[in-house]
Amino acid sequence: MHTRCGPYNRDNVPITLRSPKPGSRVVGRHISYDSICQADHDSISYQWRQVTVAIDAQRAASEWLHSFQQAFNAHDASGVASLFEDEGSWRDILAVSGQLRTCDTPEAMAALLAQEWKLSPDRQIHIESIWKSEQAERYGEQVVEAFFKFSTQVGQGEGIVRLRPDVTQPASLSAWMLFTSLHALDLPPADPTVQAPPTREAAVEPDIRNWLDRRLDEIEYTQRQPTVLVVGAGQQGLSIAARLKALNIDALVLERSARVGDSWRNRYHSLRLHNDTRANHLPFLPFPPTWGRYTAKDQLAAWFEFYADALELNVWTGSEFLGARKEEDSQRWRVEVERHGETRVLHPRHIVIATGVSGAPHLPDIPGLDRFSGPVMHTAAYTAGESFAGKRALVIGSGVSAHDVCQDLDRHGAAEIVMMQRSPTMVISVEPGCQELFSLYTKGDRPIEESDLINSSLTQAVQKKWMPLYYSRIAQMDKQLLHGLQAVGFETNQTGVLGFTDLYRRRGGGYYMDIGCSRLIIDGRVKVLHARDFETISGSGIILADGSVKEFDVIVLATGYKSLNDDVTRLFGEEIAQRIGPVWGLDEEGELRNIARRTPETGLWFLAGSFPDARINSHYLALQIQAEEAGVAL
Q1: Tally of domains within the chain
Q2: N or C: lower Cβ tally within 10 Å for the chain?
């Protein structure tokens, strides 16, 4: 280990990194240090594999980052790799690789660095400050965790390093996890000749055309073309539009519904988000602290509409994205949009598809479905169960929507409710189970930006080892719930999985966060039927494999949605769809495929995922678009 305190800045001047004395001034998230390498650092003592370890967290992090900076700037790939333990991993978002990459072995890190340095021989990194260092428990391990800021040739970054003592040399620390991310680009002053969106007036003198007049003109795009066309005004589309607005990049959002928020407003009456409101804030404008823990869909829809207005986002409602093709001469897109019955042609440089993970409703080929005499609907068209009071309902599927519909039918007095389970389902209680998952955002007074940084730092290697243990512990909390479900024949899938987030990213479903329907199943108010016992649908119900008949008045298909890839083919053609490959799902490094990252088709981007995904990934996507517009190679 290096004995000299570090890190050093780009002028080789030592950066002050000691822990603050009591009463020292704190500026924002940065500690104001007043001397160099003092001896009164905070000391950490804890048991490490039966060895008592006393570690100065600030000094340990400083020395490791100094060594990392030296090896990186010397382009010593093996030297960088040697700073990691054998199980060490590194996730980088744009800062070093210019991409979203994860390396789960020191060998993979060395290979990636060698490749990057070959492409960018002058690439350097400079550690600017450590703004927080402490002992922490992360993913089941006691670590020294340090948050730091750094710079590269292209911009400013933020990162986290987690250190653990070496198994054979407890006094020596190696990196278990490293996370680096680009936070902002360093750009020259804007070129006044480049077209930019209208900005808020600087003068206070009255004008014939007031703010509203200018906003209406801005939204119409009669005198200019949008730089970015965003398709979809849900959480993803609004988040990226807000990020681009903050970077002074002209973006137009298309929403085919009549109002912003209709994608939530028009869904079934009882819908609420199943994760904590405090984890779901949109960029720049958090939800009010007076809101409840689980946000109602109409509450959310109204907020989306307010959000677009408050942040002055340019949105066309009642507008359908019909398709696009690339113009060879200008390398812009030629996009056809149907707006209020008329076709408008736009020529953006970038298109962001932000319509969600799913495409159109998936309607599986169920034997005999066309013979059923009663109403058949997909959950996308289901609104409320009042019209089914006293009716017998079959709900096909066992994911979140299936459970919500069954619960709504019970609330409205359906005579009989049967859930047809097609495959085992992961079930986790919202309380207490999910509260551990949300604790990053709900416990303590940590700023949401810090929580997002921690959230983003989890690598696939750690996930594979930690998540099964974590969910096993939650399964113990939910033991009574799970036993009750299994006793009535509901099949659960709790072991050997990486959690419902992983299922969502790989399959888009297969789980349920229980907000009450599991009790209805256990109590027999919602009965369970397995698809393997089903033969065909008849005019009045279903015929089972044993020949018996069950009669129903309505069938609800909770069968999910088509892949986003189907929409890509429809909107951009087979050639582009083949070129970019699958959208969504995880690649071999555990990164989402073609989401918030450059695709093989220049100027075509995708955003999808949860509310935290929207907030986090929109930042990185906006930076990539900004870099392309500025001609900066990441």
Answers
A1: 3
A2: N
Residue with tokens 């490959």: 581
Distance CA 349, CA 264 (A): 29
pLDDT tens digits, one per residue of 288-311: 999 999 999 999 999 999 999 999
**Is the pLDDT assigned to residue 357 strictly greater than 70?**
yes
For 42, counting Cβ atoms within 10 Å of its Cβ (0-12 exposed, 13-18 middle, 19+ buried), the class is middle
**Beta strand pairing status for 126-138 and 141-151?**
antiparallel
Six token digits for residue 504? 């969502």
Q: Are residues 285 and 317 in the same domain?
A: yes
Residue 489 region by backbone torsions, left for phi larger than 0, else alpha for psi between -120 and 50, else beta: left
594: domain CATH number is 3.50.50.60
The CA-CA-CA angle for residues 43, 46, 47, to 5°, reads 155
The verdict on residue 211 lying in a domain is no
Q: Which amino acid is at 464?
A: K
How far is 518 from 421, CA to CA, in rounded Å?
Answer: 13
Indicate if the pLDDT at residue 344 is higher than 90. yes
CA angle 616, 93, 2 (to 5 degrees): 125
Residue 467 pLDDT:
87
CATH number, domain containing residue 153: 3.10.450.50
Q: Over the stretch 592-615, which tens digit does the pLDDT of each residue have?
A: 999 999 999 999 999 999 999 999
